[in-house]
Amino acid sequence: MDFSIHYFLRYNAQPLLFDTPPCKRVGMIVVIPCYDDELIFNTLQSLEGTRRGKSNVEVIVIVNSSANAPASAIENNRKIFAELKNKSKSNYYKNFTLLSTSVANVPKKTAGVGHARKTGMDEAVRRFAAIDKPQGIIISLDADTLVNEDYFVSIENNFNQYPKTGAFTFQFQHDFNSKLHSKEEIEACKCYEIYLRYFRLALKLTSFPYSFHTIGSCFAVTASAYTRVGGMPCRQGGEDFYFLHKLAPMTSVGEIKEVLVYPSPRVSDRVPFGTGPSVKRIIEDGAYRVYNFDLFLVLKRFFDCFDIFSQSENINLDVVPTEIIEFAGEKRLLEIISECRQNAKPGKNLNKRLFSKFDAFFFVKFLNSFTDESSYPSMDVMEAAKRLLEYYEVEGNSDIYGSIFRLDLS
């Protein structure tokens, strides 16, 4: 039975893009959203230079624009799409099969990178369904991101080695090439990358079970796992965060610790969140302030209470941090914990159910509820990183960049 039937019947999937079915040897499909971005050709050339694994590879580029996109972006998209079509017809790339489409005039409400990523991933599901490959690998990449020469081999090997794992995230390091990017962009992006690693490691110390990077160019998922979670959300930014955190409770999400991608550190306003806008803001502000480290310690104290809820007969909120009670409300906390205890056995099952309620969306709202006027004002990113490294007992280093870049201390 076609594994994708339920998905396309139940969810609002994007329409068919390509009539020609893939060859049966296709095992990986890379999906790249592209909006007004000539760097797509650098990315494709980077993919061309990788070592091939056992499977054939397809690359789907979604050249997209919204109904209110500026004329300059629409014209640039037209040129990019024409060049992509020419390269497809001439079989310019030998390492993969290039497929591209233009999706224009997308309604403002749904337009953006999430819609484009979903369009390409839905098509990848159709193509894997056509050759009966529910374990086909859908790889998410961005138009301005270079890759390691072992990109395809490493991803394929990890999925083959761990067949029950539905998705993998992988390590990254922004491309700090001073010949391509300005000193200001590089220094600002170093701050941003420190924040990304700070956030993941700070979350990890809380004992939250799904502490992984959620970056659009740094994950891959099987076609069957993609359909089970309901596909990629159509968001203008943060779609990767929502998707991976919806996916994690449903299937194992592994981590490839090898650096496989090198995102651009350039200033950009193509998306509302992520590297480009953050780098721009850091340059403008001359500083970068992030979540107070002590808030993660509050979350840790709360998550540590889950074992107490599992072992005790009565629910005692005295053990819960005051900050959590004030944020969620005592009545609501009691309702959620009681419902979890009634519907799950003590131990791992109860903890899993509690984390399904107090999930990533809960802790992000919690973190965002604190302003600079609160008891937990934001911290300079370097100060936050120092506190984090002290917690992990990493020895002092004059080059804190080097410390935090050690692949998240793993």
Characterise this structure:
46% of the residues lie in helices and 16% in strands. The protein is an alpha/beta fold. The chain has two domains: 237 residues, Spore Coat Polysaccharide Biosynthesis Protein SpsA, Chain A (Alpha-Beta Complex); 75 residues, no CATH class. The strands form two sheets. It has an eight-stranded mixed β-sheet with strand order 3-2-1-4-7-6-8-5. It has a two-stranded antiparallel sheet with strand order 9-10. Helix 3 links the parallel strand 2 and strand 3. The longest helix is centred in the middle third of the chain and has 23 residues. It is globular and about 70 Å long.
Write the layout of secondary structure elements.
Blueprint: H1 5-10, E1 26-34, H2 40-48, E2 56-66, H3 71-89, E3 97-106, H4 113-130, E4 137-140, E5 145-147, H5 151-161, E6 165-172, H6 183-205, E7 219-222, H7 223-228, H8 239-247, E8 252-263, H9 275-285, E9 289-290, H10 293-311, H11 322-328, H12 330-343, H13 348-357, H14 360-368, E10 379-380, H15 381-391, H16 400-404
Parallel strand pairs: 1-2, 1-4, 2-3, 6-8
Antiparallel strand pairs: 4-7, 5-8, 6-7, 9-10
Helix pairs in contact: 6-9, 6-15, 10-13, 12-13
